[in-house]
Amino acid sequence: MGKKPPLSGSHATTLALKKLATEKEVVRRKLVVTAKKLRRKATQLAATAREKERVRRKLVVTAKKLKISHETLEKKVFERTKDLEQMKAKDEAILASIGDGLVATDKDGRILMTNKAFERLLGWKESEVRGKFLSGVIPMVDSDGKIILQPRHSLKDISATVNGASGSTLFYKKKDETSFPVAMTVAPIFIGKELMGAVNVFRDITKEKEIDKARSEFMAIASHQLRTPLTAIRWALSSLKRENLPDNLKKLVHTAHETSTQMAVTIRRMLMISYLEESATEPEMVEMNLKAVLEKVVRLHDAHRLRNGLEIEVRCPQDLVAETDEQLLIEILDNLLSNAYKYTPKGGKVKLTAALQGMMIRIDVADTGYGIPKEEQRKIPKKFFRASNIASPAASGTGIGLYMVYNIVRLIGGTISFVSQENKGTTFTLLFPS
Amino acid sequence: MNDHQKHVLVAEDDAFLLEMIRKVLSKHGVRVSTAINGQEAIDVIDNDPPDLLLLDLIMPNVDGFAVLQYRKNKNMKFPVFVCTNLSDKKTIIRCEEFDVAEYLIKSDMDDDQIWTSVGKYLR
To answer: What does the alpha-carbon distance between residue A305 and residue A387 come to, in Å, rounded to a whole number?
Structure first.
């Protein structure tokens, strides 16, 4: 085998140098590439750093803004809380200053809050009654001490009781078991359309009741004192009327007797108005044959009718039954008929018509009398109203009759209206539940 | 004297009215006893019970209510017509509790009307 001839020393060095140069070149190129990469990377890092700095600055600004907002908010909350506290204190002061008792309940009738007057009037502290049923803590009783509402009744029931108790007095029982008369208003509390509870405002009406009682007693005594001498006068004149007196004296006695009778009627009516005004009269509902009642009233005024030369016509179904207070109905019809006779000239006619109209009874009292002038019609039912066109001296009247009629009609749950034309006549229409 | 003659006791402190009522009742054949106060009325009731009592309420010493109470205590059944000038509700309710047959207001009637009311009951 042939052997490679050994290289000369310089050639070998040259080759080694060439190889080294090549390797160096490779390394240099790699370094160039790496440097490029590094430069690119450095650029990227610089951009990221810039972006971060921008974000940081933004965050600093936002943080500052947030801090300011927070401080403003805190300030506003503080101010608003202060305002609310002031408002609450003001409301509490107002509630505390109300002389009337106040209690608010939820929709089941459990006590939510009370005011100072509640505590003063009833002797219960709010802390003792909060969360309890109002009607359980404070029973509502009548004048005999009988409980009207059992415990666990909602204010809605109380409201119904209060509104249904027209006329009769309600009493609240205190913590010490004594009771006092109350006047109250119960109002529902709505949030949106939802019933949340109710508020009950009440006051002690002991003083008013005492005044009412004193007034009633005065009226009772005054009327008795007026009636006693009047009775003697009436009876003496009645006795004289039966004597065989000369015509001129007979006429005088007759007039005096009529006048004293009228005075007795006036006293009776004034007393009735007084009772009606203090709601001491409550209707006693009984079933009655209406025709019999109408005929009774007609009979009562027959002498008056004949004296005035008037005609009467009664129209009423034989079997028409009404359920109402007979005495009050008679009082109404008595007044209307008496007025019709009084204000209808001789030869006139009065028609009394009764009929069933749906669930109501309708009674018309129509006359062919003087009528009420149009401009004066709005004055009815003013107390002591008398129409200006009543010239007839025979038609004496006080003007309290119609006022009383309107009050009594309300009492029996009815309505009354009239149509009137001067010199043609008047028709009063009474409607009341059958 | 008629065996069936009715006996009415009139208790009234006003002498004039008492006499008027006595006259009108007597005129119609009624035997009338009179009393000017409650005690006199009770004495008559004990000794000669009436068929009907016409009773005023306000009378001196012993009043009409005391007479009504006495009648109730003795469980007597003769009808009572109260004849008064009081017309307040309290008085009327009190009379209803004593089972009064009629409540007449004196000033609203004449002596003749008294007879009309009483006569209806006696017949």
So the answer is: 21
